[in-house]
């Protein structure tokens, strides 16, 4: 790990000012000289590997604003402070009651030790675990723009079948993000250009020709909160994660589902897919396919076919299409059968 300067600002404005002093307007957060750190469960790993090389770390854990550490439940929904830990949110009674898909996605992620360290904001901003991104001897457009993508002709079993490009097929490995994008969450950020709100669906960018540009954030912007709007029928929701082993493994395929039902007829469906895409993936076409339909195995299968109609497999990951379809069908039927 290369040497770096470590600072602990005590309020948001000081943290933003420090970041602004050592970055330019066009710097990407993941490539900036000064970077924010909270739990450190992602950035510290990549610094040890030589993938991330900031000159300065700005530790946000000394920030005095209590709103950053609170889970606030109101009639308008749930507001998670950015520094709330994953484990705390997963165990929160009202989160489990009102939005089981959110609690599930957090509970099934990583290990207990990591969930107790990792912040919610850091979790949604985590970077890919693509083997070719993590190993600096391989070509990777996300790590070194224009160098190529070794995954294209390499072992790509873990890689994405949705949202990829000729420049990058690295999978987004998070779980929490699938629940957030399914439920129309909003992210609050503060930076040198003021405060703003970003629909969660617009936070992450598909790789296209610029896979090194991963989010819509500026280098001096701090995520301060994540809001999930009030959806009373989101009590009928779950997150299903399929992986090589039962714990401490990333998803090969996953589905976040929430359903508003009239008997067995779908009034509204919310669906997001994980483990199969380059970004948190809202399966809007699958939602549309279910609208007004009786939810049974046939309609769930048709929705799954629609969700993967644009999938682009590679040599070793074609199995993810069928696995993803079966995962979604199972998630839909299990959500239908929930007792709420």
From TrEMBL:
GO terms for molecular function: FAD binding; oxidoreductase activity. The keyword Flavoprotein applies. PROSITE patterns: FAD_PCMH. PANTHER family: OXIDOREDUCTASE (PTHR42659:SF1), XANTHINE DEHYDROGENASE SUBUNIT C-RELATED (PTHR42659). This is Putative oxidoreductase with FAD-binding domain. SMART domains: CO_deh_flav_C. Keywords: FAD, Flavoprotein. It comes from the Bacteria. InterPro entries: CO_DH_flav_C, CO_DH_flav_C_dom_sf, Diverse_Substr_Oxidored, FAD-bd_PCMH, FAD-bd_PCMH-like_sf, FAD-bd_PCMH_sub1, FAD-bd_PCMH_sub2, Mopterin_DH_FAD-bd. It holds the Pfam family CO_deh_flav_C. Residues 1-233 form the FAD-binding PCMH-type domain. The gene is yagS. Coiled coil: none annotated.
């Amino acid at each position: 790990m290369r040497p770096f300067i470590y600072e602990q600002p005590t309020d948001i404005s000081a943290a933003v000012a420090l970041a602004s002093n050592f970055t330019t307007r066009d710097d990407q957060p993941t490539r900036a000289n000064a970077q924010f750190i909270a739990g450190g469960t992602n950035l510290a790993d990549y610094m040890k590997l030589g993938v991330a090389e900031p000159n300065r770390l700005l530790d946000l854990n000394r920030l005095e604003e209590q709103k950053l550490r609170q889970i606030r439940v109101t009639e308008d929904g749930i507001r998670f402070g950015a520094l709330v830990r994953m484990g705390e949110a997963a165990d929160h009674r009202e989160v489990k009651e009102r939005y089981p898909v959110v609690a599930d996605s957090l509970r099934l992620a990583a290990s207990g030790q990591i969930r107790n360290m990792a912040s919610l904001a850091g979790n949604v901003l985590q970077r890919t675990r693509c083997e070719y991104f993590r190993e600096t001897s391989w070509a990777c457009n996300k790590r070194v723009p224009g160098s190529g993508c070794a995954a294209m002709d390499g072992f790509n079993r873990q890689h994405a079948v949705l949202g990829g490009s000729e420049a990058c097929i690295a999978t987004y490995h998070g779980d929490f993000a699938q629940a957030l994008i399914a439920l129309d969450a909003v992210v609050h950020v503060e930076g040198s250009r003021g405060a703003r709100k970003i629909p969660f669906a617009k936070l992450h960018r598909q790789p296209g020709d610029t896979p090194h540009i991963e989010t819509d954030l500026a280098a001096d912007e701090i995520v301060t909160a994540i809001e999930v709007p009030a959806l009373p029928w989101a009590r009928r929701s779950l997150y299903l994660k399929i992986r090589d082993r039962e714990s401490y493994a990333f998803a090969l395929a996953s589905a976040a589902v929430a359903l508003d039902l009239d008997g067995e007829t779908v009034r509204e469906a919310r669906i997001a897919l994980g483990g199969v895409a380059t970004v948190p993936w809202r399966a809007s076409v699958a939602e549309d396919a279910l609208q007004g339909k009786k939810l049974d195995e046939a309609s769930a299968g048709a929705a799954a076919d629609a969700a993967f109609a644009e999938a682009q497999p590679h040599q070793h990951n074609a199995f993810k299409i069928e696995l993803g379809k079966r995962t979604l069908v199972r998630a839909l039927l299990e959500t239908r059968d929930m007792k709420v």
